Amino acid sequence: MNKPERIDAATEETMLAMGRRARAAAHALSLAAPEAKTAALRAAAKAMRDATATILAASEKDLAAARAAGRPAAFIDRLMLNEARIEGIAKGIEEIAELSDPVGTVLAEWARPNGLRFQRVRVPLGVIGIIFESRPNVTADAGALALKAGNAAILRAGSESLHSSLAIHAALVSGLKSAGLPEAAIQLVPTPDRAAVGHMLAGLEGCIDVIVPRGGKSLVERVQKEARVPVFAHLEGLCHTYVDKDADLDMAVSIVVNAKMRRTGVCGATETVLIDKAAPAQFLPALVKALIEAGCEVRGDATAQGADARVIAASDADWATEYLDAVVAMKMVDGVGGAIDHIARYGTQHTDAIVTANAETAERFLREADSAIVLHNASTQFADGGEFGFGGEIGIATGKLHARGPVGVEQLTSFKYVVRGNGQIRPT
Amino acid sequence: MNKPERIDAATEETMLAMGRRARAAAHALSLAAPEAKTAALRAAAKAMRDATATILAASEKDLAAARAAGRPAAFIDRLMLNEARIEGIAKGIEEIAELSDPVGTVLAEWARPNGLRFQRVRVPLGVIGIIFESRPNVTADAGALALKAGNAAILRAGSESLHSSLAIHAALVSGLKSAGLPEAAIQLVPTPDRAAVGHMLAGLEGCIDVIVPRGGKSLVERVQKEARVPVFAHLEGLCHTYVDKDADLDMAVSIVVNAKMRRTGVCGATETVLIDKAAPAQFLPALVKALIEAGCEVRGDATAQGADARVIAASDADWATEYLDAVVAMKMVDGVGGAIDHIARYGTQHTDAIVTANAETAERFLREADSAIVLHNASTQFADGGEFGFGGEIGIATGKLHARGPVGVEQLTSFKYVVRGNGQIRPT
């Protein structure tokens, strides 16, 4: 009965070998010409289009297995590829190809009285491990972003999307080859063996520099708990929109409905609406009505229930729930201070917004709310690297170290200090 | 016999309570006026001078215990405080007080076609845990740097320096009080209980954001191995100076001797000198002679031994040894490529230098050597936050995430994105 152990030993050796190849590829990539990376990505997009039939056939295998396993419709939709989605993936790779190359950018420069000239210069991070679940497009998005920043990537797809991911990966590798870059620049774990994740979280003997989990809360939770290397992620996006007494009501209604209902399953969706107790009397019923008419269930405190019979009683658990659904919690608070306190207690340092026409109140909120993204008079659904102008993102991070907020190409880099002298020695 | 366990439970509760106080203080500090932080540091420096007699008496206790324990002279010297050193510590605090406040600085700003205006704004990191050994001045340096950046600090002094550190800490607290800042902004673990370190490394239930170890390799090794929170540190500074065939020999001699011998115990001291095989014949004997005359033992490869009878044979272990002493390893390499390869194999990504008059060779080295600090025509002993113009540092980090190189006030901060709109909602 030592079969599992033998299988795991084999997986470990496979994974460590992938790690070593990735480290060597990362070294080559860190010195690669910007043009080579761009050419590899353009060629990968072309290879993806050329391989549409192959990718669709692979996807059909994943879909058949998912249907046989009785997976829910939302799951099947995340997994599904069609011609339009493959074209979308190819376009996404081309957009990343055209981003400016971050490597070598001078972030700061200064001189010292002794004549030494200092520069802080962007360098790649190294090897990025990306662990994802059912969306096969992450293979292309994450691999392309990592490559553009000069990093090697080790991708681990969910077993449900493995056939599709392998087919997409083959197109990426063909792009790398045609540009003369190492094939190991983007590797995909070729088996569905779950032990692979554990090995990646342990860091492959120093061959992984950072892990990015892309998936549901249980995946992120496991990664954050077990990883022995740094993780760029957020566990929950429990985002708030606070409507101040000095808000323009039409703007507040428009922003709140968009922030909650544009897409309810994204991490930047508002989960709790906070309303100033001192707001004019029509604010609360207008906000409740607009949300309910947009198809949202409203769970409110006593005041909110009093304002509209359709409001369901909220329990304390509602303030701490990321619904990711057409449900919102609603609470009256004591002005901007009350909103900041509520967010400090229940928020997840992801994205929080204030709607107010009062500049002073807005500035207080923007300063004191301790979140990666704070917005004034705009929807929390702007929490997205594309909307920031980053040209793509690998995720949104809520940690305070290194990458915070949307993790785009620049956030996948580090830096080094370059010091130029003409013989300076340090006085004793 | 469950006494140790009870003691540890008490320590745990003490430590967790310190963590909670630190978190609350960090919140207050993140909103504190720059003037309050400056005032607190100025007052702390004054309190330090006023308490000179008390601090000296405390130091005498530490010194008596160290002498009784038969500690070596170098240890006693690190531990020792006198009037001049106390004045130096006070001056150091005053210098940190006058640094510009990083909190609130706008790091980047841009607008999007939809009118949203984005800013990336510096915010404090939160709570910094600093674990150090025998140098009591770290209490003041690290506490002051953390405070200037708006962070709370939890300091854990070595048991050997605890009396001195407590006396210095009292002066810092007096400064905080006089400026109306929370006393818990800078806390010192009041007991020598070793279990405190373990609790800090576990993160005090989310109340420590980053750990900075200040001490020898065994401390850093333990911290890097056990910490469940991010660590800013370097394990070893195995720094190289490469002398290229196109170097100016006088400059090379001056830089190499300074890089090795100015102070041999610092992390930026050069440990291995690499010399280009194609360098003119007089380079090798001149470098060996200068080092030996400066009091340095030279351990060289066969060529170096052939050049001077006083050169001792190096073993492979020498290329991997951080001597921190008047000993240097010396090796001939095949040009700048050979130097880069040697550094990639044996270096610690800390600080490496090239001496050459050839600009192209220099640029290749600066680009390809994968170290936090790379220098051209200057001594590796410039690896120091003060020399970078950072006005102080809490250490030098070799990790690629967040803080790399000298960790000064700015490196002890994070950032958030502030987004200002006028009603923008995100299109579906």
List its salient traits.
homodimer; 428 residues; alpha/beta; Aldehyde Dehydrogenase, Chain A, domain 2; 2 domains; disordered N terminus
Secondary structure topology:
The structure is a homodimer of 428-residue chains.
Chain A: H1 3-30, H2 34-50, H3 52-68, H4 73-79, H5 83-98, E1 106-111, E2 117-124, E3 127-132, H6 138-148, E4 152-156, H7 162-178, E5 186-188, H8 195-201, E6 210-214, H9 217-226, E7 239-243, H10 249-261, E8 270-276, H11 283-293, E9 297-300, H12 302-307, E10 312-313, H13 316-319, E11 327-333, H14 335-346, E12 351-355, H15 359-368, E13 373-378, H16 385-388, E14 396-397, E15 405-406, E16 413-424
Parallel strand pairs in A: 3-4, 3-6, 4-5, 7-8, 7-12, 8-11, 9-10, 9-11, 12-13
Antiparallel strand pairs in A: 1-2, 2-16, 14-15
What can you tell me about this protein's structure?
- Two copies of one chain form a homodimer.
- Chain A is an alpha/beta fold and 428 residues long.
- Chain A folds into two domains: 7-232 and 407-417, Aldehyde Dehydrogenase, Chain A, domain 1 (3-Layer(aba) Sandwich), CATH 3.40.605; 239-388, Aldehyde Dehydrogenase, Chain A, domain 2 (3-Layer(aba) Sandwich), CATH 3.40.309.10.
- The first copy, chain A, is 44% helix and 20% strand.
- Chain A is built from 16 helices and 16 strands.
- The first copy, chain A, has helices spanning 3-30, 34-50, 52-68, 73-79, 83-98, 138-148, 162-178, 195-201, 217-226, 249-261, 283-293, 302-307, 316-319, 335-346, 359-368, 385-388, and strands at 106-111, 117-124, 127-132, 152-156, 186-188, 210-214, 239-243, 270-276, 297-300, 312-313, 327-333, 351-355, 373-378, 396-397, 405-406, 413-424.
- In chain A, strands 10-9-11-8-7-12-13 form a seven-stranded parallel sheet, with helices on both faces. In chain A, strands 5-4-3-6 form a four-stranded parallel sheet, sandwiched between helices. In chain A, strands 1-2-16 form a three-stranded antiparallel sheet, with no helix packed on it.
- The longest helix of chain A has 28 residues, at 3-30.
- The first copy, chain A, is globular.
- Chain A starts with a helix and ends with a strand.
- The model of chain A is unreliable at 1-6 (pLDDT under 50).
- At the A-B interface, helix 10, helix 15, strand 13 and strand 16 of A face helix 10, helix 15, strand 13 and strand 16 of B.
